[in-house]
Amino acid sequence: GKNNTVQFVQPNSSSVALNRVTGASGSQIMGTLKANGQVFILNPNGVLFGKNARVDVGGLVASTKNISTTDFMKGQYTLSGSGNPGAQVVNQGSLTTSKGGYIVLAGERVSNSGTVTTPSGKTILAAGKTVTLQLDNGGLTSVSVNGSVVNALVENQGLISATNGQVYLTAKGQDMLLNTVVNNSGTVEAKGLANRGGEIVLNGGDSGVVSQSGHLLADSQTGQGGKITLEGQNIHLAGGSLTTATGKTGGGEVYVGGGWQGQDSHIKNASKVVMDKAATVDVSATENGNGGTAVLWSDDYTNFRGTVLAKGGAKSGDGGRVETSSHRNLQASGAVDASARAGHGGEWLLDPTDVTIVGAGADTGIDSATADGTDIFTPTASGGQILNSSIVNQLNAGTSVTVKTSGTDTDGETGNITVNANIIKTAGTDAKLTLLADNNISTGDNVSIGATTGKLNLDLLAGNTTNNASISLGKFINISLNGGDLLADAGNSASGVSLTFMNNGKIKGGNVTLNLSRGLGGYAYNVNADNDLTINGSVTGSTGWGAVLGFTAGGKLAMNSPGSISLQANDSGNGGGRVLISGDKGVTLNAAAGTVTLSAAKAATNGVNITSGNGAVSITNMVQDGSNGMTLTNANISSKDGIVLNGTTFWGQAVVMSGVNLTTGGDVDITGLAKNLTTGGLGAASSSGVQLSGSNISSTGGNITLTGTAGTDVSHPSISSLQVSNSTLTTNNALTLNGTTETTTGVKVTGSTLSAATLNVNGVARVQGTGFSLATSQLLGGLADLTNVSLSSAGSAAGAQNVLDNSIVNDANRDTLLA
């Protein structure tokens, strides 16, 4: 009765008193129950602790299930069997244990609207077919709930407190569909007073809904936050709910629907998870230490609209880790804060199958709130969608954001990421955005990604598990990172990826690295780096109508292609385009097994410009088919420290330059080699080394050396190994022309002007033909009187000829040449 007291006097705290109640009525405890040991109350008709009930024991089990006498005497505590229809275990009063004690309320339906207190102990509310307890020295070491029952329900509307302890609310329902099996609308505390907070588990089994609309608190004011886990088929974090595992020395852990990326085998993955707009999860460090880990995961559908906090400590520590993901459909419009006032920002991972980053508006399919009566577990958009403002807010807070797609699904989704809205970081310190796609990455037209405050580092990683993936940037894409670095690469080193600009795109970053085994290409695009620009992969591009195709670097610029490099400024009839390549500390273009083509349709447009303010320019290639190795047309190349052009081919022309202007303060070294790639000998009969026409080469402080080697023969008399026509070569130092052929001309100069301190011409015709030929040309500067001129055909076959016309040899210099 209300004013009565029952006290069990037991030998010690390990003693267990079994009270098996028979009859047709449920047990009603309205007064006070005390025990220095453990008390079991088993009644198949139900157990009620009334509002005025006061229980103070070492341990308590109240259940509608039964236990066999044999098992009980053996210390095997398995509760089984079904209570009578409608039987429940209900607490409306105050249940308390001594330190380290336990309270177990078990049946088909269990509810608490009173208070349950188990300091440093365990509180279990369980609904299932069997409940097995492991007891040791007066304490509960473990509990397992197995088997499902119809209409299972565990609910808490009151207060459950297990300071430094654990709380488990577990229900295993059968065919529950969207009915609630675990419901917390009250407060569950497992706060920590020592090293870390306690543990709270809400487990709804394989069927039904786990609903959290109250407070789940595993905080610690002295140590690290504790751990909270919500498991079940469908999980709902309702508006106004608070789920926290904060800690003075570090954040704790909250797992809703699964572990990190759904890979924790100890946590059952949910089918669907919904977090309402006003729901909060907090795993922050409050004073020192790093933020903790918070995960929302589902196999089918996650709708994230709430707030997740994983902040670093106010005095020290970095931000924590947050994941809001689904294996299939993710809708994310919520807020994440993994910032750190005294450290580095944390990480936010979003990981669906396919996903589109969208802007605000009615057409996004993302609801900010759920209407009354709506099935909250039915997706409001057909595919995964993330609101761009959610990403921007976290970048502004210094939190790194990773959007990752995984695998394929039955709806035909293959792991693509699509960006259809702007992502512009406008505040805060440096942050990083990573787009990691299992398959392809693409953007819409007129999309901007970048930063105006602080650096934004951007990784575009496609083909994480698939081959031949692509990164496709829409028309007028603008990526401007405010000094942040850009990496475009394959997500997996074994896969290949390409990057394509659809039209008039722009990239600007600090260091820009494009590792593209399937190549870079597009129309009128620009890639600019404040520091180094590195492109590993074949490079193609074209432009016209006055547009620019550009590559610039404040540091070194390097294009390393396993195939070809082809950049062309075309003439559309309304004016040609321009190709601009600039690296302040050097420019290197290397096509290891392909051609280099840099061409402009019109010389007057200054169509191709390559510059290096404080470094050298180097262009090299090797091609194994009939293509020309290197073709430069209407191009301007200037550098401070030198220019190196090195072309190698088998069948075609190794280096072909027309309308080219080279200017440098260092050496100019142009080498064209046509060789047999099998034997290493000279190449095919129609090949040539270097062809220079209508061009100008000038070095103010270095030497100029042109070397051509090829396998020309008498059937191709117009082809020379080194041929200079209608060009001007000027240097204050040495000018050297080297050419080796089989049967035509080694070095051939016509209609050109040569000005240098010294001139060395070495022309070799190995079988027959002409070693060197200089005609209709001018020798200026220190060459005018032939005093500093050396002409040689050493190595040529007997009978080989040399040609010097009267533009070179005249009455004024003949004696000098013959001396």
From TrEMBL:
<dbReference type="Pfam" id="PF05860">
    <property type="entry name" value="TPS"/>
</dbReference>
<feature type="region of interest" description="Disordered">
    <location>
        <begin position="312"/>
        <end position="335"/>
    </location>
</feature>
<dbReference type="InterPro" id="IPR050909">
    <property type="entry name" value="Bact_Autotransporter_VF"/>
</dbReference>
<keyword id="KW-0964">Secreted</keyword>
<dbReference type="InterPro" id="IPR012334">
    <property type="entry name" value="Pectin_lyas_fold"/>
</dbReference>
<feature type="domain" description="Filamentous haemagglutinin FhaB/tRNA nuclease CdiA-like TPS">
    <location>
        <begin position="2"/>
        <end position="71"/>
    </location>
</feature>
<dbReference type="GO" id="GO:0005576">
    <property type="term" value="C:extracellular region"/>
</dbReference>
<protein>
    <submittedName>
        <fullName>Filamentous hemagglutinin N-terminal domain-containing protein</fullName>
    </submittedName>
</protein>
<keyword id="KW-0732">Signal</keyword>
<dbReference type="InterPro" id="IPR011050">
    <property type="entry name" value="Pectin_lyase_fold/virulence"/>
</dbReference>
<dbReference type="InterPro" id="IPR008638">
    <property type="entry name" value="FhaB/CdiA-like_TPS"/>
</dbReference>
